[in-house]
Design goal:
Blueprint lengths: L13 H13 L5 H22 L18
Helix pairs in contact: 1-2
């Protein structure tokens, strides 16, 4: 299985995820018009997520413990 872009050290933020997604799957594959629309929707999602949750970290929100690991 290939590692994600930037390996496992990529920042945990929606902005970073969206940028990596655009680079890996959209830019150079889709037309500039479509790429701009996708970027717009990702920005809207980022803004909505931040408004609702108060942060932009999709995996470990600030102030909360890491998820429990079930064995």
């Amino acid at each position: 299985m290939p590692l994600p872009i930037d390996g496992l050290t990529a920042p945990d933020s929606i902005e970073a995820w969206a940028s990596r997604y655009l680079d890996a799957a959209v830019r150079g594959v889709r037309s500039a018009e479509v790429a701009d629309k996708i970027a717009l929707h990702l920005a809207r999602f980022r803004d909505h997520f931040h408004t609702v949750h108060g942060h932009d970290r999709p995996t470990n929100p600030p102030g909360l413990p890491r998820p429990l690991r079930l064995q």
